[in-house]
Amino acid sequence: MEEIDRRIVTLLAQDGRMSFTDLARETGLSVSAVHQRVRRLEKRGIVRGYAAMIDHDAIGLPLTAFVSIKPIDPAAPDDAPDRLAHLHQIEACHSVAGDESYILKVRVASPVALEDLLQQIRESANVSTRTTVVLSTPYEHRPPPLGDGAVPE
Amino acid sequence: MEEIDRRIVTLLAQDGRMSFTDLARETGLSVSAVHQRVRRLEKRGIVRGYAAMIDHDAIGLPLTAFVSIKPIDPAAPDDAPDRLAHLHQIEACHSVAGDESYILKVRVASPVALEDLLQQIRESANVSTRTTVVLSTPYEHRPPPLGDGAVPE
DNA sequence: GCTGAAATTTTTTTATG
DNA sequence: CATAAAAAAATTTCAGC
């Protein structure tokens, strides 16, 4: 991927609703050229999709936590992500190196809801949990650094 | 916030580029009514913005890690988020309960880049670090559960 | 706050160099 | 990849209830 595609990706990461007209102005390309590139980036999966960023306080999910999980039976097949996928309070699931096997990011309405969710996680995936509660989030969803730091391809 | 706004938020969280026409069809409102509501949700900050979701492998940042930090001097004023904000490889910063004070989510190009970033974090904020490397991400950015689980207002 | 409709702008496609 | 043109669709504004 080269310079202009990288610029387009950066712009869309910052404003997913930016118009092709604006993208064209920012990149110096014509509208059709930008259009073509964006479609190609989407098709290749470099742009995976678009999402509105939501204020979780406002929608009644003010409590965020990171839940690290570890299998009770280390010999059992590890299909925890599949077994947890139905729990929609889990926003993300990362397989990680280290003592524990996955880190989950969860959003819930209250401490009681967290307690309930943890129980469901333990039951669903036969794991033990270790939970770190988020107190506040100074920043989140910052766009990736493409002009500085990363040297793709 | 009531039912229809919640539905709009859910739809936009799943597809940040959904048109007002489609939102109108999905909610049973007129286009102008939906338009009005979306603008109001944006103005109130319930919808914070829109972002393209990017494949970090494709843009040369294939390595994700969680970095927990702890101040070297517990008596010093805690302005770590400000002091780290210039490091664009930090995608998110959460203040957390527990032994450590913040969890950072970082994206870098390589192990060496991670090593370099960790050093910059320690120097910039006068903290010690504990790093958990992400091996794979079964899922991420799942939309919040508004029709099930949460009971806003 | 909603509807319906007009005015404007953007998106999308197609063609040509 | 640029330009151009045309058609389709979406955004935005506004009168009226």
TrEMBL record, chains A, B:
HTH asnC-type domain location: 1-62
Swiss-Prot/TrEMBL keywords: DNA-binding, Transcription, Transcription regulation
Keyword set includes Protein transport: no
SMART domains: HTH_ASNC
InterPro entries in UniProt: ArsR-like_HTH, AsnC-type_HTH_dom, Dimeric_a/b-barrel, Tscrpt_reg_AsnC-like, Tscrpt_reg_AsnC/Lrp_C, Tscrpt_reg_HTH_AsnC-type_CS, WH-like_DNA-bd_sf, WH_DNA-bd_sf
Record Pfam families: AsnC_trans_reg, HTH_24
Coiled-coil region(s): none
Protein's UniProt name: Lrp/AsnC family transcriptional regulator
Organism: Nonomuraea typhae
